[in-house]
Amino acid sequence: MKYSNIIPKTLISVLILSFFLGTTYQANSKEADDEIIKLESGFENLTSLDYDNETLRILQSEPTTLDRSLSHDSTSNFILNNISEGLVSYDQDRKIVAGVADSYSLSADQLTYTFYLRKDAKWNDGSPVTAHDFVYSWQRLSEMSSNNESLLTAANIKNYKSILEGNATKEDLGVSAIDDYKLVVELEKPVPYFLSLLTSPNFAPIKEEMVITSGDRYGTDLSHIAYNGPYRIEKWYEGQYLLLTKNPHYWGSEFIDIENIKIIAPPLYGYDAFLKNELDTTTLFYNDFITAYFSGLSPIATKNDAIFYLKFNQNDDVLKNANVRKAIALGFDNSYIVNKTEIGHPANYYIPSGFFKDNDGNDFRQDNVEFLNYDKNLARKYWNKAQTELSIETYTLELLTFDNIISLNIADYIKDELENNLPGLIVNIVQQPFDVKLDLEKTGQYACSIGGWGMDYNDPLSYLEIFSSNSTSNDVNYSNPKYDTIIQTLLSSVTYNQGERWELFRLAEKQLLQEDAVIKPIYQAGTYYLVKPNIKNLIQEYGMNDSLKFVIIE
Q1: For the chain, what percent of residues have pLDDT higher than 90?
Q2: Does the predicted TM-score (pTM) go above 0.85?
Q3: How far is residue 62 from each of residues 74, 77, 478, measured CA to CA in Å?
Q4: Which of 29, 297, 477, 552 is spaced 20 to 30 A from 284 at the CA atom?
């Protein structure tokens, strides 16, 4: 059954009114008392461990930075999630468990968190991790990292918006150390996913002394970083591998099974290396997945949280026309791309399938409609209408993509389909290395690009918020007051019950895709991988859960 696309008019009126008047509508809200909530360590249910100097060998790109305040890419965050630790973390079952904080309390109005830090949390030099290290880290993050602005915006930490606007300083940020082991965080509005946000390495502590002594070199190499996580970087041979070893100063070191993690850099071919016993786990191309299956191995197929799509820079004189964007979005068959490349699952949606469930266990996408399904006849109508509106017969579209063979194959198919279905449209493919492509997008030096997004925190808002007018991640230059109202309502009025929040998510997704064609979703990424049967608790399908401290080698 397809859902209704309309929220009752009375509710919409309240939402919009509350947004513009600055008030908060309460719908079935629950007040939490301020009792102290004890967090499990996550180690409670692990099987018995063998301390036999085991090494886990994985294939992973090298980090671009080790500076927690600057990191915003998955490869850097993977390393940082294993050498640093914030207040809380995820366990192997995707539950929030203790990190540096072993308990917390939440005020009745849900605006003040008090975190109680464990006294056995240490830096790699043996000195204690304190609440002051978190204050320094978060204040530093608030003033220097535009790449992570969406995280802080979503967190709704008191005074961050004023800091962003230049009306307050980092010292005004709503985080304070009552003493060495008690941290207080004040929010502007209740944030139901706040603890999920705190699992990001960007919210981990930073040792101020190390930053001061390192200067501009902080986070650039092993001698200019301090870490408090389960592992430490023992060696780094650039272009070859990183070796992580257990951090003896980590509070849970005695419970960690794997002594060493060898992170081998590409271009090692994962499937061959796995067969040669050079890797313990590897992702697979689809053809290798099939080969492995018929060879008697046990490859695993999962969805992950990344959605890949075409995005249109609306500063372009032609692409700012909605009919052009709709023509392109409807003008190629994304299911054909997925069937040929087997890189995931066709996605005519933006909020991913399989990651957000209601209280009854129903997936967000279960009854939701799809958008911008392939329709070459309708695409031609939009294209003809746009040609008339813009007084153009031809248009050359530059399509930016990654410099790998799969990305080129996808771009080639899109080019062929669009040029066949939309007469007068010419597509030129531009391939660039990952970092160059990101810079071109960030500076607006592109027209159309194949991009992607995975969640920063466990809420659909992590996807939707990046296209609001004031988001620094909005590199498509999209601005629509209707969309902004929905997002601001979600950001500022988070005490709605789940059903009402989900209806707002549906409205936002419909506006983004069906009404404005801001992006054209292509596929939800799939992960195919092999892992040795004696390796347990290695979670590959969950974008944020990449800490290895709970992994066991039997």
Answers
A1: 60
A2: no
A3: 10, 10, 33
A4: 552
